[in-house]
Structures are given as C-alpha cells and as structure tokens.
Amino acid sequence: MFEDPLLKMWVSFIAMGLMTLSVILTVFTKLKLKGFLRYSLLSISFVCIIISGLIVFLVTFSGPVPE
Q1: 28 contacts: CB under 8 Å, gap ≥ 6
Q2: N or C terminus of the chain with fewer C-beta within 10 Å?
Q3: CA–CA gap between residue 19 and residue 11 (Å, rounded)
Q4: Whole-angstrom Cα distance, residue 62 to residue 19?
Q5: Can you give the pLDDT at residue 5?
Q6: Cβ-count burial of 18 within 10 angstroms (0-12 exposed, 13-18 middle, 19+ buried)?
Q7: What is the pLDDT of residues 17-67, one digit of tens each?
C-alpha cells in the first residue's frame, strides 16, 4: 500500500496530529463547554481518534517498505 517511505512517514505524522487534536478537543470540552456544543466537539474528537487508529493500523501492518 505504501511504497514510498517518505509517504509512510507523512501519513503517520497525520495520524499523530489527529491524536493530538483529539486530546486537545477532549480536554477543552470537558473543562470549558456545556450542552450541545460539548457533545458535538466530543463526537468530532471521537471520530479523529478512530481515524488515527485506522491510519496507525494500516501503516503498522503494511510492513517494511522495499529498499
């Protein structure tokens, strides 16, 4: 799936960024927000962590890149 090692690196960086965004959104919404906005941002945070988990799974199990 990922033949280029540099592409694999950037995709994993995107996954790490989504994880960071998810943590920031979760902490912010738990401390500062109430009501509908809180649950909508928590839902976005949940989607971000699911997508990043799938990306990490794909990058990890795609194996080593050929030399």
Answers
A1: 41
A2: C
A3: 13
A4: 20
A5: 85
A6: buried
A7: 999 999 999 999 999 999 999 999 999 999 999 999 999 999 988 888 776
Work out the end-to-end distance of the chain between its first and last CA atoms, rounded to an integer number of angstroms: 15
Q: List the structure tokens of 2.
A: 């990922």
Domain holding 45, by residue range, is: 5-61
Q: What is the pLDDT of residue 32?
A: 93
Q: Is residue 46 part of a domain?
A: yes
- Identify whether 30 is part of a domain: yes
| Helix or strand (DSSP H, E) at 6 | helix 5-32
Within-domain flag for 66? no
Number of CB atoms found within 10 A of residue 48's CB: 21
Q: What is the pTM of this model?
A: 0.86
Query: For the chain, what is the domain count?
Result: 1
